[in-house]
Amino acid sequence: MKEGFRQSMSWLHTWIGLVAGWVLYFVYLTGTLGYVDKEIDYWMTPDRPHFAHPGTQREQLAVAQARLQQVAPQAASWNIQMIGGREAPSLDIAWTDAAQPGAPQAGAAQGGAPRAVTHHETLDPQTGQPIDYSARATGGGQVLYKMHYQLAYIPYDRAILIIMVLTLIMFAAMVTGIIVHKNIFKDFFTFRPRKGQRSWLDGHNLLSVTALPFHIIVTYSGFLFFTYQFMPSVPHLIYGDGRSAALQFYQGVYPYPQPKLPQAAHVSVPMPPLASVMDQVERSWGRDIATAVEVRNPGDANARVLVKPQETVSIAFPENMLVFDGVNGSLLEDFRPNDHAAADTDHVMKGLHKGLFANWFLRVLLIFMGIGGTAMVGTGLMLWANTRRTRLLAAKQPLHFGIWLVDRLNVSAVIGMPVAIAAYFWANRLLPVGMGTRAAWEVHAMYLTMAAMFVYPLFRRPERSRVEMLWLCAAAYGLLPVLNALTTARHLGHSLPQGDWIMAGFDLAALGCGAIAALCAMKVSRSQATATVRRRPRAANAELVTS
Amino acid sequence: MKTLTASYRWSIASRFVAAAVGGYAVVALLQLAFTALLPWDYYKSLLFSSQTGYLYYTGVIIWCFAARTAKRAWLGLAVVTVPLLLIDAWYLMHRSVT
């Protein structure tokens, strides 16, 4: 359609990038926060106690077992989550009552089979006593990162379809971007700062190429989560219509095999200490790999102890398990579900997307690459307007409405969306702790702020709103640790000496974000000031340098 | 900057429809064709074809905007979809007999 293949790909890259850019920016931003979802959860529930000295796994198991023996000797199952890894900041126990026929149980009123009731407690790992804390209702990091595929205020089915289409556009934008960018390895080392338009393009290329494998993997694997919803027609044709198609498909794809466990023998046998299985667990897996222990039929002759690894063990996170005899503590089965190759591929791709496998070092890298991707989309959006402005000004033509709008939407999205996310954190600390609709209002606060961030730039020149909103962003993040100190006792003065690294890490990261936003604000306002000075002699060209 | 003619705009619109609808059709038809041709369980063929489906879709998008004219874009789509349609139709008829 244009002169050549590369030119038409450049055209396609530019335009699909523009139409999808603002939402993709949001997706990259909230998706990146998903790499620290548990850490955000932790910061957003400051009521949850921190344990500086949780003791060894064996001590925790002993403490948990003593408590469970005391409150639920007759339970159908026990679950113990030891402190360790990202997913377990506290020692949590749960037990499920044996469903007794005849006995009135919750759920039995509906006429169905009596449903087993599960109870939860968080234990003090030192004393073994349950800790009574009421955590504030919050969406936490979970609601925040899930916005990267279920958005907000939109029915789930529709949201994932929107995201699927955007993911497709993202992927096409990457492939066309690679085609356009022919000197991919030469330009990799090229960054020419303070050259206006040229620097933005260099920056865009640098951000894209540095983490290219990451961008390709997260985009492509993102698609794999909802392939069935995106194209349900063929499975329906093959399996027949209705719910059974999805069911048959998913049962084939994810068989989720489980180890065979015996029914309760209803013969009481005293249980050995759970910690006794840990020697074998460490021989099989290594130290501190296991964090979850489940006991089926505790105190029964057919008791079984299931030990599960934490998510960091492997990319695909197979549901491996060690099955022990709950009476003599001997290892019965090293359970490794055997999947087929297609399911393995699926697990690995999704595992790469979620990044649960990453240790802290990889996690930091993932976050930087995620931020790089966010910036890649952001710089791409700004390039669209800048290129066109340059061209029109050079031809001495008036700027059209498209540039006017894109300039403003860019300020709204690129700076406003991070501000809106900060509002989510502010709401978590400022809304009354006992408020019923608290979690919902955290989200409302975020989107009300975002709406304001989209309206404000419509009434300001972008040169002004850009600087003002960057300062707002700097304040919104930079003051978060202050807000935390004013509203909770878990501020930096407490978290740092206590070694509460997650709480401290969030506060420090917020400070860092605030500092970066402040630096940007100063830099942008300075470069715009120089541009204004230069505008007098060369009115037209100065505009190029402006942004 | 040259002004955009109506025919240029129509060409873009036509390519857009070809890429979006044609791409979806190609992937769906391929999915059924894989199920027909691959000697695997249905769910494996379905999973394999959806795992790779994105690549074909992206290929179609690129083709539709790289072709010299919009007509050629559609023609290229037809070249791919017609054999796929034949395979799928044969498969569905064959399936209903057995």
Structure notes:
Chain A is an alpha+beta fold and 547 residues long. Chain A contains 20 helices and 7 strands. Chain A has a 7-stranded antiparallel beta sheet. In chain A, α1 crosses α13 (360-394) and α14 (401-430) packs parallel to α17 (480-487). The two termini of chain A are 31 Å apart. With 98 residues, chain B is mainly α. Chain B starts with 5 loop residues before the first helix and ends with a helix. The interface between A and B is large, with 40 and 33 residues.
Q: Shape of chain A from CA axes?
A: globular
The chain-level structural class of chain B is mainly alpha
What share of residues of chain B is helical? Answer: over 70%
Q: Pick out the low-confidence regions of chain B.
A: none
Radius of gyration of chain A: 27 Å
**Secondary-structure element string of chain B:** HHH
Number of strands of chain B: 0
Radius of gyration over C-alpha positions of chain B, nearest whole angstrom: 16 Å
Percent of residues of chain B in beta strands? under 5%
SSE sequence of chain A, one letter per element:
HHHEEEHHHHHHHHEEEEHHHHHHHHH
